[in-house]
């Protein structure tokens, strides 16, 4: 049930119960993220947070900021407080005023205060994966702001394939974050989104990501970042600062004894550049993100947070990051203590800073950097460079501009959190993301007038917190699936299992209510006890006796049987797909605070489902033979390795990337597309005289080299609905290219029996290129096959 404020102090104070839970969640998160922290210490932290919260959460109602000229007029003469100067000048002025010890205090997430300069302590660590979160010490809920809008977990939002929605959610979250900052409850720097590729279906954190496709992940990451960051009227200013994580090739948490603190991801240059890196590149270049977080794992033998090629070379050098690079929490300590990458802690501190790390989540750099400087391992100029990136980010946020109430977002407050509009957007996102995977004639939508009795069964049928996944905050309110369904028809409810582990199913009770009901809805799946940070799955079967419960209830049911899977990752539900008694299947992700209302909207036909799977659902046989630790994307016929994701996987699927049904049918007609594209080459180019399979991408032959594709899309049904148009291509078979990959997607809304024109702009060098074995992007010459639904169109690219 939802958490409520309960008075436990004197009559003059209300202490939010949510904070007790939030503190416990934070202690648990610290235990998960910092492997060397003892359980005892975590609970010490919990009780310290608890006592700290009584004074802070209840007492503090003003934001933390520097350059408070009103309280100390002498600060007005300091250059870094002068808003008429440029950011570089202000940062330079601040850095030169600091001692070495003071500088080192700004290398860690709990940044030090310098009272002589009017700089208060600032906590960098806040989270906003799908709403303002209580994970991380920078953000709290209280009786002033008891909750924030909790959107669906990212994997379901990705299933909407609606780029404008990604950005709209970011705008809402940043508005609520600023509102909470203004009353002293939140920070300005948020370590979200997670844009790692959902490479393996067992990964416990796949739920946090936009799925398995590099283009979708790129569009989601850059869109959400723009929504969070873009500041009205100031292209360089920041509303809040986002952070794209975890860089890079991070997607093993804890699988059969291999954990993220010790894992070395062996990745080919080809896979790195065409699968793992594109979302990060887009986040920096297209999203202009203010931060990138390096991960715990090693990539090809080097910890990512100590790799100068990955950090200084790529993020800051090639992609030109305007912001700071932060470590995952305690990852510098991890590569010293767990990976034994350096002999001394001072060497570890120096290697991280010299690689390009600016901020350490944790205390390691605070403890060991001074000794590293004194030992000659790193010079003070490198520290100046790091903290300059951190200060520049805070300057762009207005942290050094004085009283926030006099600034652009100063009028935001508790009234702007959990507004009706924001809560409706959470419900709309869930509706748009829910995926209809199976629908037999006469099953969905159910008629709310014809159905007089509905059996609602399953361990996820009446859940609250399960719906919001991880990296969650206290929501505005919950609507459970049972509540959502009961709002339309009379229901009878049996959980069927005491929890999702379902060690013993109460089959007879469930069968009894299904046998007499007009229809049955089974709400099954997972929760954080099955898939989570630090918890990867071993298999893809529904947990415990869930399959038995579903099958037996379906046999006994009188009317249609709707199976609802609530989960982050996919399951092998082949048994349900082929069982004629199970008439419909819905996947609802973790659908957020309004999940139950959205599920009911789809089941009763108030909303026509339009979600599409952002990841492949594999059979159990796949994970029986493929180790999670094998990072190779491409299949290997010699060993029988089948490859990964829809782009390369050669085996059978339960459901495929992009699958999803509607209550309408949609027809595509190709209206315009070229059959031949010629790439202009300069005189003397080798490919004029020699037959080439591919061309290096060069500015001279890529400029303005593109074309348009026009498609007519018609809603053939009588029901209005949205439809995602996917444009895929199958490139020529060179350089182990993908068997197909996504070039673009567009979501359109069509009333019954109407049509629209959808246009795609194709950039030949970007969209029709492949990455070769050395990691170089090249234009593939030869026949490309474009796919839209069942349509195929051949296109020849030649010189």
TrEMBL record:
Gene Ontology cellular-component annotations = apoplast
The name this protein goes by in its record: Fibronectin type III-like domain-containing protein
The record's keywords, sorted A to Z, are:
Carbohydrate metabolism, Extracellular matrix, Glycoprotein, Glycosidase, Hydrolase, Multifunctional enzyme, Polysaccharide degradation, Secreted, Signal, Xylan degradation
- Per the UniProt record, one Pfam family is Glyco_hydro_3
The chain positions of domain Fibronectin type III-like read 723-792
Q: Does the keyword Secreted apply?
A: yes
**SMART domains attached here?**
Fn3_like
Where, per UniProt, does this protein localize? Secreted, Extracellular space, Extracellular matrix
Q: Which Gene3D superfamilies match?
A: Glycoside hydrolase family 3 C-terminal domain, Glycoside hydrolase, family 3, N-terminal domain, Immunoglobulins
- Which family does the UniProt entry place this protein in? Belongs to the glycoside hydrolase 3 family.
Q: Which reaction does it catalyse?
A: Hydrolysis of terminal non-reducing alpha-L-arabinofuranoside residues in alpha-L-arabinosides; Hydrolysis of (1->4)-beta-D-xylans, to remove successive D-xylose residues from the non-reducing termini
UniProt-listed SUPFAM superfamilies:
(Trans)glycosidases, Beta-D-glucan exohydrolase, C-terminal domain
Q: Name one GO molecular function term.
A: xylan 1,4-beta-xylosidase activity
Q: Which organism is it from?
A: Lithocarpus litseifolius
Give me any GO biological process, just one.
Answer: arabinan catabolic process
């Amino acid at each position: 049930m939802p958490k409520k404020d309960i008075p436990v102090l004197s009559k003059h104070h209300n202490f939010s119960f949510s904070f007790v839970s939030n503190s416990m969640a934070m202690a648990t998160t610290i235990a998960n993220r910092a492997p060397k922290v003892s359980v005892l210490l975590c609970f010490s932290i919990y009780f310290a947070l608890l006592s700290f919260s009584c004074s802070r959460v209840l007492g503090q109602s003003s934001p933390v900021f520097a350059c408070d000229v009103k309280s100390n007029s002498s600060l007005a003469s300091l250059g870094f407080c002068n808003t008429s100067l440029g950011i570089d000048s202000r940062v330079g002025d601040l850095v030169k005023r600091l001692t070495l010890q003071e500088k080192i205090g700004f290398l860690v997430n709990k940044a030090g205060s310098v009272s002589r300069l009017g700089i208060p302590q600032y906590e960098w660590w806040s989270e906003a994966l799908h709403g303002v979160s209580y994970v991380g010490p920078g953000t709290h809920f209280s009786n002033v702001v008891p909750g924030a809008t909790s959107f669906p977990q990212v994997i379901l939002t990705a299933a909407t394939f609606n780029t404008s929605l990604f950005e709209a959610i970011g705008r809402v979250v940043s508005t609520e974050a600023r509102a909470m900052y203004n009353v002293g409850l939140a920070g300005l720097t948020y370590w979200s989104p997670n844009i790692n590729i959902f490479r393996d279906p067992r990964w416990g954190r796949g739920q946090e990501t936009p799925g398995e496709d590099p283009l979708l992940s790129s569009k989601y990451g850059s869109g959400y970042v723009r929504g969070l960051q873009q500041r009205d009227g100031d292209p360089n200013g920041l509303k809040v600062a986002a952070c794209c994580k975890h860089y890079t090739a991070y997607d093993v948490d804890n699988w059969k004894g291999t954990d993220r603190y010790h894992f070395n991801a062996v990745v080919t240059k080809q896979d790195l550049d065409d699968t793992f890196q594109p979302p990060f590149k887009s986040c920096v270049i297209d999203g202009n993100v203010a931060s990138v977080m390096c991960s715990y794992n090693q990539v090809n033998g080097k910890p990512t947070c100590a790799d100068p090629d990955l950090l200084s070379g790529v993020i800051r050098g090639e992609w030109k990051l305007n912001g700071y690079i932060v470590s995952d929490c305690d990852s510098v300590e991890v590569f010293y203590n767990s990976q034994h990458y350096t002999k001394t802690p001072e060497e570890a501190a120096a290697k991280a800073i010299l690689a390009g790390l600016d901020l350490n989540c944790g205390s390691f750099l605070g403890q060991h950097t001074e000794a590293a400087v004194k030992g000659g391992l790193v010079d003070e100029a490198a520290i100046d460079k790091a903290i300059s990136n951190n200060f520049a980010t805070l300057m762009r946020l207005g942290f050094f501009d004085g009283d926030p109430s006099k600034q652009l977002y100063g009028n935001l407050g508790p009234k702007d959190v959990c507004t009706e509009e924001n809560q409706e957007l959470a419900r709309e996102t869930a509706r748009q993301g829910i995926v209809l995977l199976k629908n037999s004639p006469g099953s969905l939508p159910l008629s709310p007038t014809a159905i007089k009795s509905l059996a609602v069964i399953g361990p996820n049928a009446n859940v609250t917190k399960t719906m919001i996944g991880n990296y969650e905050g206290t929501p505005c309110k919950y609507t459970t699936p049972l509540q959502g369904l009961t709002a339309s028809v009379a229901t009878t409810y049996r959980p069927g299992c005491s929890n999702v582990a379902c060690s013993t199913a109460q089959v007879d009770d469930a069968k009894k209510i299904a046998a007499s009901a007009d229809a049955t809805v089974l709400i099954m799946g997972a929760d954080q006890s099955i898939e989570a940070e630090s918890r990867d799955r071993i298999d893809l079967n529904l947990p415990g006796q869930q399959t038995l419960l579903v099958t037996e209830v379906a046999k006994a049911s009188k009317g249609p049987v709707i199976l609802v899977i609530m989960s982050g990752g996919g399951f092998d539900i082949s048994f349900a797909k082929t069982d004629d008694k199970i008439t419909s299947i819905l996947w609802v992700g973790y659908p957020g605070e309004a999940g139950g209302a959205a599920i009911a909207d789809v089941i009763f036909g108030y909303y026509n489902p339009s979600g599409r799977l952002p990841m492949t659902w594999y059979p159990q046989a796949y994970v029986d033979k493929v180790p999670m630790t094998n990072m190779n994307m491409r299949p290997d016929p010699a060993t029988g390795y089948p490859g990964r994701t829809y782009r390369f996987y050669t085996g059978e699927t339960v459901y495929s990337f992009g699958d999803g049904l509607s209550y309408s049918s949609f027809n595509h007609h190709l209206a315009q597309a070229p059959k031949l594209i010629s790439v202009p080459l300069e005189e003397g180019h080798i490919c004029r005289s020699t037959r080439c399979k591919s061309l290096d991408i060069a500015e001279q032959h890529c400029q303005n080299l593109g074309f348009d594709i026009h498609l007519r899309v018609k809603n053939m049904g009588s029901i209005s609905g949205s439809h995602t148009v996917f444009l895929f291509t199958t490139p020529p078979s060179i350089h182990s290219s993908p068997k197909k990959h996504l070039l673009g997607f567009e979501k359109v809304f069509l009333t019954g029996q109407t049509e629209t024109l959808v246009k795609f702009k194709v950039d030949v060098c970007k969209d029709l290129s492949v990455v070769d074995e050395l990691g170089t992007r090249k234009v593939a010459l030869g026949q490309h096959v474009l796919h839209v639904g069942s349509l195929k169109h051949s296109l020849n690219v030649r010189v």
